[in-house]
């Protein structure tokens, strides 16, 4: 007898809980379906958020994208970013070459590789922070 009373009490309280949560469920479902799953921009924080905002504006603050390819001619030289006025550059003159030709590249006009003749130009680059 006591077991039946206890079982009846448990089912009554469970039914009340279900009824009260059933009143709130449609509201929560409506809110969830309107917003959907948050996007990367909504969830991102810190450096990731800064990078996503910059990429949306068309900038590449941390050089994450593949650099543009250049012909290496005098009119279209390879661009070398630098924060100073000169930089040491290594050129692989041939595709399967194992020796690297090193030379200093100075700010100003495009300069040639002493071995193969490819042109390189130093461009001042600001740090992202």
UniProtKB/TrEMBL annotation:
Coiled coil regions in record: none
Domain of life, source organism: Eukaryota
Protein keywords: Acetylation, Membrane, Metal-binding, Mitochondrion, Mitochondrion inner membrane, Transit peptide, Zinc
Location of N6-acetyllysine modifications: 68, 86, 121
Principal location: mitochondrion
Subcellular location: Mitochondrion inner membrane
GO biological process, one term: mitochondrial electron transport, cytochrome c to oxygen
Entries under PROSITE patterns matching the protein: COX5B_1, COX5B_2
Binding-site list for Zn(2+): 91, 93, 113, 116
MF terms in GO: metal ion binding
Record organism: Channa striata
Protein name per UniProt: Cytochrome c oxidase subunit 5B, mitochondrial
One CC-aspect GO term: respiratory chain complex IV
InterPro entries recorded: Cyt_c_oxidase_su5b (IPR002124), Cyt_c_oxidase_su5b_sf (IPR036972)
